[in-house]
Write a structure and sequence with these properties.
The chain has helices spanning about 1-10, 20-70, 85-100, and strands spanning about 105-110, 115-120, 125-130, 135. The chain is α+β, with helices and mostly antiparallel strands and about 150 residues long.
Length: about 150
C-alpha cells in the first residue's frame, strides 16, 4: 500500500497543485512589495542628496554677494526666498524645488548674516547659515532668528 502511494507521487510528472502555485505567487508578491518599499526609501534619500548638493551652492553665491556688496542683502528677496533676480540663485531654487515637492527655499538675512533652509523628502529641513552650519535640523530659521541652530 505504501509503495502504491509513492508510485503515484513519483508519476505525477511535473504538475503542481493549485495550493503550491498560490503559495509561490503569494511569496513573489510579498518579495515584490518589500523591494518596492526599499526602492521608495532609496528614491527619497536620493532626492535629499540632490537638495543638499543644490543648497551647498548657496554658500558659494553668498560669499560672492558678500565680496561684492559687503553684506548679504541681495541673497534673499522680499518674500524670504532666494533672490530670483540673481540667475544663479534662481537656478538653485528651481533645481531644489524639483526634489522637495515644489516647496520654496526659505531665505532670511539681516545683512550681516543669513539662514537658508528647505524641506527634505525624508522629513525635517536642511539648513545652512553664515555661521558655517549645514545640516538637517528641526528648527526653522525666521526673520528674527537668522541661524540654523
Amino acid at each position: 500500500m505504501f509503495s502504491d502511494g509513492l508510485t503515484k507521487l513519483i508519476r505525477r510528472k511535473g504538475s503542481f497543485t493549485l495550493i503550491e502555485l498560490l503559495l509561490v505567487i503569494a511569496i513573489i508578491g510579498l518579495l515584490a512589495s518589500l523591494i518596492s518599499v526599499a526602492a521608495s526609501q532609496a528614491r527619497k534619500k536620493g532626492r535629499d542628496g540632490a537638495i543638499i548638493a543644490d543648497l551647498s551652492q548657496v554658500r558659494i553665491e553668498a560669499a560672492v554677494i558678500l565680496n561684492n556688496d559687503d553684506n548679504y542683502n541681495n541673497l534673499c528677496d522680499a518674500s524670504n526666498t532666494l533672490n530670483n533676480a540673481n540667475p544663479n540663485l534662481d537656478l538653485i531654487e528651481k533645481e531644489t524645488q524639483k526634489y522637495n515637492g515644489n516647496q520654496p527655499v526659505s531665505c532670511f538675512t539681516d545683512g550681516a548674516s543669513y539662514c537658508v533652509q528647505t524641506p527634505l523628502a525624508t522629513g525635517g529641513f536642511y539648513c545652512l547659515d553664515s555661521i558655517g552650519y549645514a545640516g538637517k535640523t528641526a528648527t526653522n530659521c525666521a526673520a528674527g532668528y537668522i541661524a540654523c541652530q
